[in-house]
Design goal:
- The complex is a heterodimer of chains A (341) and B (75).
- Chain A has 14 helices and no strands.
- By secondary structure, chain A is an all-alpha fold.
- The longest helix of chain A is centred in the last third of the chain and has 32 residues.
- Chain B is mainly β.
- Chain B has a 3-stranded antiparallel β-sheet with strand order 1-2-3, with no helix packed on it.
- In chain B, β1 and β2 form a beta hairpin.
- The model of chain B has no long low-confidence stretch (mean pLDDT 92).
- Classes of the chains: A mainly alpha (341), B mainly beta (75).
- The interface between A and B is medium-sized, with 23 and 20 residues.
Chain lengths: 341, 75
Amino acid sequence: MSPAAAPVLAPAPRGELSAILLGALAGAPFALDLDLPFPEGDALSDEDLHLSLYLCYELHYRGVPGADERWEWEPSLLAVRRRLERRFEAALEALVPRGDEGVPPEEVDLALREIADADEGRSLSAHVEREAGLDEVREFLVHRSAYQLKEADPHSWALPRLYGAPKAALVEIQADEYGGGRADRIHAELFAGAMAALGLDARYGAHLDRIPGVTLATVNLMSLFGLHRRLRGAIVGHLALFEMTSSIPNGRYARGLRRLGLGDGATAFFDEHVEADAVHENVAAVDLAGGLVRQDPRMAADVLWGARTLAALDRRWCDHVLDAWEAGETSLLAPLEDTDG
Amino acid sequence: MADERPDVTITPYRDGPLLVRGPFRIEDMHGNPIQTDRETVALCRCGKSRIRPFCDGSHKLVRFRAPTGAERGRQ
């Protein structure tokens, strides 16, 4: 059950726009009529908007099952994507004001730490460590699979946009994410192993139809930042905060899985991240983010904005999941079956 | 350039671990190897890690403070 396996099923539409896009993608590219029914719901979680945007981005990653690959650079589809991105980015700016603050390069790690420490909301990892049941842990893995089966890929888009010290720092992190030259140590592969250990289908994209917009938004955030050179500061800040808020929660997830009687096959991904991210967080905050600001002080504001938008969207995602579980409901669009699969 | 630097570099990160880069080897006091697959490792500096000698991020929970440079007789 490796994520290297081909994507499985074409996803189901979630509204008028995604239905039109999925219909179009199945055939040869043509110039889309841009007078489309664009979704008007909450641009931070709308199902139709975030599935549509996710599909646009997936063409640049592992592809959309059943889609003609030539759609990737079809100008009219890029225009659709741009319109969705504008709404998403505007909503992000409304959620997290985008300042023009300057931070000295040697204090970027401290400014990022302040953002990490500011989140005092409910902790999903503490819940998993202490009391989550197996059903909840399986749902948690399904949510995370939207990113974790292509872990590190959105940040790799930044590599050709960087040079010198911050580039070396990003390569140092990514080399580790990609297994240090060993395919079985690629973090995405370790995640697939954890899914398989919990009886989940670990094929790339297998659960997309169950993953809500509030979760897809956290992945679209990385693709938006990664695919636009003008947002290179934001993708760097995103990675730095991601790494800085990783080792402790992953230790909690591993302990939660062991509490439920699961073995190394299930915990390897989380154990690996405790040790790996304790390295990465320093490299990302000091050498990557600090190094980028040292080269170009104007990057500071976007580094912090990228970090803050990650914290804000993750908070919304975490609250969604915990609210659903507290209400005794599934946090997914459709519950997992016992045999799923 | 790289050839002007020692083979192994140890960097104390502010309020965090010691990062070790280069062709290092870690052994216990009896000469037994301590296994790591990583090219760069973070060694615990706060004492609270659950995976010593490696760092697990616990320094953040205990608000460990230490400079990146050398101390000269801390008060």
